[in-house]
Amino acid sequence: MPRMNVMDAVINVLESEGVRYIFGVPGAAILPFYDALRKSKQIRHLIVRHEEGGTHAADGYARASGEVGICVGTSGPAGTNMITGLYTAMADSIPIICITGQARTDALHKEAFQAVDIVEIAKPVTKWAVQVKEAAQMPWVFRRAFQIAREGRPGPVLIDLPIDVQKQAIDYDASLDAPLPIYRPAPLQSALRRAIELLLTAERPLLMSGGGVIIANAAPELVALAEYLQIPVSPTLMGKGAIPEDHPLYAGIVGIQTQQRFANAIFLESDCILAIGARFADRHTGQLDIYRGNRTFIHIDIEPTQIGKVFHPDLGIVGDAKLALQGLLAEAHDCTPPRTPGAWFERVQYLKQTLTRRDDFDDVPIKAPRVFRELNEYFDRDTIFVTAIGLYQIWSGQFQKTYKPRHYMVCGQAGPLGWEVSACTGVKLARPDQQVVGVVGDYSFQFLMEEVAVAVQYRIPFVLVMINNTYMGLIRMAELPYQMNYEVKLGYETDTGQTFGIDHCKVMEAMGALAVRVTTPDQIRPALDWAVRESNHRRLPVLVEVMTEAEENAAMGTRIDQIREWHPLPEMTSTTI
User: Fold this and answer.
1) Beta strands 96-102 and 169-171: pairing type?
2) Where are the beta strands (DSSP E) in 442-574?
3) Nearest 10 degrees: CA dihedral of 127, 131, 132, 133?
4) Residue 254 maps to a domain
5) Would you place residue 565 in the very low, low, confident or very high pLDDT band (cuts 50, 70, 90)?
6) How far from chain centre, in Å, is Cα 124?
């Protein structure tokens, strides 16, 4: 059997697993890995400016491609900097592998330079965290890491590599090694039959598609089931794109922040919910007793411990989302002929037409809904949008239109500020032929704005649209019993009363990128046109900074447990349809 350096064997494993990009920062304790990596003709390495940025780039790549994202760092703070990215991937079920260097094994207990027990630190935010102490285990640890990251509910893995182990040689024959199989649990058919029976006996059923439908590439099966049974579909925020938002059966997003008023109203009138690959997050459910109500809940998830975690469903089914939807459709065919639109369908259309929100404002300063109106009208259905956390994410969830799976990337549960720029880099590498647009906030952008330099260096083009209110608006709007008397403005006021903060256009230009500032609604469309043209022509990130109203309210009060207070609705009867 051939004898080789163990890191050469690791690179062989990475190549056979389909790895094309690695995001990392070299350092002394990981140099043997990098020495082997430089020999690869398949894997391209991108030097990021912060290890957290590397994890978010790997995360964005994984979301867009469906493959495992890879990031690398040295020992000590490199690993601790990755924790936020690991947590984000864990929360949103994203398969990434973080590789860290480590001090020598004989120095780990001696407080050696940059020696930290990163495995113990990472365990709560990973599916598996492991330190490899024996070189002969290395190929199989990496094979297992890919299997764990992909299998079941996907998620992150951390592999810690002491430098003395990286330098050893092992016997390894790449021709005798291959990726490990990925098990996809099939749901019990009798349980699927029961689910169909519950849907058929309901008067006002809903299908609720979560991120699990996107991950399983099961959107076509979801739409086929909805159309066959004529059941409206309400995606969660992580399931956005599972059904086109102009589809007649699209029923909007339920929630307390990223939501539509008509979706909350539709949900409150429903009597049976089939949730697939959703975890009933608190920003989705709001007040749980009102959310649960007297509705029948069917919960399908690939992870058994997700079922019953938030509340006990009437029927729980463990299974892969794609296999479950295929099985449900087969059972539906066996139980009933194709259904035609009825009273519930008409009611949903009525609510969608009447409980809308304005986005045609001409005000100056610009109102955020107008920005999203322009985005929706300017970009086509193939555009991929990326957004992170904050007031602009709430606006995005309420107004951004999405038509295809893996075309709306959002960090849902963890919500790390600064996620979007690095994520755009990863998304664009995964989908080089599609337009990528990152919707960012001024405060979030400043967290990891140095990662723009990565996209400039490697000529990765995308457009950033900044909703800049120079104000921590979400904190001001939060319903908290505290006096918000500290400073939340992010800029300074001029003699004319106008607020300015960091000049983001100059920041972009300083890193070799391009930018333009917009202050009136009529400037948005020309700015987008310029940004797209220049970004694609020069192969650079381009920023459109839109100055918006500082204290604008995102109407988060229209949450699910208050919808009737905001807009009392008649009960569904034949006379109201």
Assistant:
1) unpaired
2) 462-468, 492-493, 499-500, 514-518, 541-547
3) -150
4) yes
5) very low
6) 20
Name the DSSP class of 293: T
User: Are residues 148 and 205 both part of a single domain?
Assistant: no
Q: Note whether 132 and 206 are same-domain residues.
A: no
DSSP, collapsed to helix, strand or coil, labels residue 324 as helix
CA distance 137 to 69: 22
> Does one domain contain both 214 and 148?
no
CA nearest to 97, candidates 147, 35, 48:
147
Q: What pLDDT digit, counting tens, does each position of 408-451 carry?
A: 999 888 878 889 999 999 999 999 999 999 999 988 899 999 99
- The residue type at 110: K
Q: Is residue 362 part of a domain?
A: no
Using the 3D structure, point to which of 176, 201, 233 is the last residue of a domain: 176
Which is nearest to 44 in space by CA: 407, 435, 425? 425
**Residue labelled with tokens 């983001």:** 504
Query: Following CA atoms 444, 450, 454, 457 in sequence, which dihedral angle do they give, to the nearest 10 degrees?
Result: 130
499: which strand partners?
493
461 and 337 in a single domain? The answer is no
Distance CA 223, CA 209 (A): 10
Q: Is the pLDDT of residue 289 over 80?
A: yes
- In Å, the largest CA–CA distance within the chain is 80
Number of domains comprising the chain: 3
User: CA 433 to CA 431: how far, in whole Å?
Assistant: 6
Task: Tell me the DSSP string of 151-175.
Answer: SSS---EEEEEEHHHHT-EEE--GG
Mean pLDDT across 131-158: 97
Contact 449, 507 (CB under 8 A): yes
Task: Please return the burial class of 43, using the count of CB atoms within 10 Å of its CB with bins 0-12, 13-18 and 19+.
Answer: middle
Nearest to 155 by CA among 107, 222, 94: 94
Kind plus residue range of the DSSP H or E element containing 419: helix 419-430
The residue from 109, 141, 176 where one domain ends is 176
Residue 80 has pLDDT above 60, yes or no: yes
Domain with residue 485: its CATH number is 3.40.50.970
Could you tell me if 159 and 203 lie in one domain? no
Domain that holds residue 320: 189-356+562-572
Give a yes or no: residue 361 inside a domain: no
In terms of domains, do 342 and 464 share one? no
